[in-house]
Amino acid sequence: MADNIARVFADAIATDPTRPLLTWYDDATGERTELSGATLANWVAKTANLLVDEAGCAPGDPVGVLLPPHWQTAAVLLGCWSAKLTVVDAPGPVEVLFTAADRVEEAGRWPAGERYALALHPFALPMRQVPPGCVDFVGAVRGHGDQFTPYPGAGEADAALLTRAEARAAELGLRPGDRLLVDVTAHPDPVDWLLTPLTAGASVVACAHPDPARLPPAPNPKTPPTPSLTPALPPSPRSCTFGPGFRAFTPFVGAETARSARRGGEGGDGEGGWSGVRRGGGFGPGWRRLSGTRGWPGRPWPPRGRPGCRSGSS
Q: Sign (positive/negative) of CA torsion 97, 29, 34, 261?
């Protein structure tokens, strides 16, 4: 059983650092951003270097993270864990506090040595107005190195967090190469939307305020199986404790599978769709697994931004 988050992250991107690892959507704002493993690792390394070199943190030091689910939050959390810091969730003295711009007042209740504010801009642009007493995280982190060697051993909370994440992944039957779609508004715990796919070697599509009309079509549990396409694998779990708000896509592991025809003009090899969808009814409410990595019907593929990172807003 894994007990080192930095090692789990490194293993998740080792096979192909260029593949999409984290795709972020916010249906309320139209924001969409995709990061490859290499790009996310770059942000994680810069964050860890900022914590060690600029903030002077040492392994075991407490840090506070007052951030909602977001791709920048993933970089902050993984950077903290790479530096072997302890992320705490209750107000109290911390060495460093990361706060969203709209939670600065709440952050005032946390005694902190250093305070970094994040605007969570889709293009990670610097803040125009930095809250008093804070440093703009994006402006500060860019100047730090993009290589960081994590300290040996595990952080204080690593084992407990990874145990929970591995249990989640097992419930879902996640496998390496899977892509997990998570409603992060309903499930904001980073164990669910960040660590669970990483422990399984999967990637994640994190969606805030999801518009039901834009989600993939619901699976039909009565769809007859296609024998030639049913994998010769053990049946998938027949129940799931996550409930509505989670969907996984990649080949469904189970007996009730069928391949759908490619949607006209929305093929998995192009924008806005997928091909080779396998459907199954064994995961319970709110779950479905689909193959393809190119978004889904009604969602355009994120336009290109920086190398390895595609982002934009509609």
A: positive
